[in-house]
């Protein structure tokens, strides 16, 4: 699995975005940061909680100058139907049908033939700042992913459980 300090592979994939099919190239991002999260598949039990959770937090990610991108092995038609069923998703759901991108990021489960629940936070230049993976039966915390993004954007040392608005003391050190 790729980790902090690695450069995320670029890609261009078909996607569902705001109810329409299109294509997206990772390197075309205009935001300072990106959160790319892999999930196993549409129409499953845990995935809608994550996908909807990122959608509900989208403004907070945007306030942190961070785009959100979801990616699974499902095709664009499946993404469009599922997003409509979920009440609409306002960020791109990318289609990695053959798992090539999940493999490039080191998060493809060859036994299950789907991506792990993996999240990558990166800079615009695709330098990975944060990477985490969860087992299939455990959903990730959107709130903690947002907290990590907000901490990264400070450029400062942020202790465990740090939240925006917490003042940094004189003991702050550079790592």
Largest sheet, described in full?
7 strands, mixed
- Give the tally of structural domains: 1
Kindly estimate the percentage of residues that lie in beta strands according to DSSP: 25-35%
- First-to-last CA distance: 24 Å
Stated plainly, the CATH topology is called Glutaredoxin
Strand order of the largest sheet: 2-1-5-4-3-8-9
What low-confidence regions span 5 or more consecutive residues with pLDDT below 50?
none
CATH class: Alpha Beta
Query: What does the radius of gyration come to?
Result: 16 Å
Task: Give the rounded overall mean pLDDT.
Answer: 94
Q: What is the N-to-C order of secondary-structure elements (H for helix, E for strand)?
A: EEEHHEHEHEEEEH
With helices defined by DSSP (H or I, 4 residues minimum), what is the helix count?
A: 5
Please give the CATH architecture: 3-Layer(aba) Sandwich
Number of strands: 9
Structural class: alpha+beta
Name the shape in a single word: globular
Overall helicity: 25-40%
CATH superfamily: Glutaredoxin
3D architecture notes:
The protein has 175 residues and is an alpha+beta fold. It has 5 helices and 9 strands. The protein has a single domain (12-154), classed as 3-Layer(aba) Sandwich (Glutaredoxin), CATH 3.40.30.
């Amino acid at each position: 699995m790729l980790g902090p300090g690695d450069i995320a592979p670029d890609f261009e994939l078909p996607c569902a975005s705001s109810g329409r099919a299109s294509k997206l190239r990772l390197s075309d991002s205009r935001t300072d940061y990106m959160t790319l999260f892999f999930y196993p598949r549409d129409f499953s039990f845990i995935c809608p909680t994550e996908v909807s959770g990122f959608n509900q937090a989208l403004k907070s990610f945007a306030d942190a100058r961070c785009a959100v991108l979801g990616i699974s092995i499902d095709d664009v038609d499946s993404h469009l139907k599922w997003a409509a069923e979920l009440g609409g998703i306002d960020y791109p759901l990318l289609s990695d049908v053959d798992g090539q991108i999940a493999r490039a990021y080191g998060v493809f489960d060859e036994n299950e033939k789907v991506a792990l629940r993996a999240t990558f936070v990166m800079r615009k230049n695709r330098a990975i700042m944060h990477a985490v993976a969860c087992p299939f039966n455990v959903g990730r915390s959107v709130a903690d992913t947002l907290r990590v993004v907000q901490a990264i954007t400070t450029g400062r040392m942020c202790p465990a459980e740090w939240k925006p608005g917490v003042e940094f003391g004189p003991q702050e050190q550079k790592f």
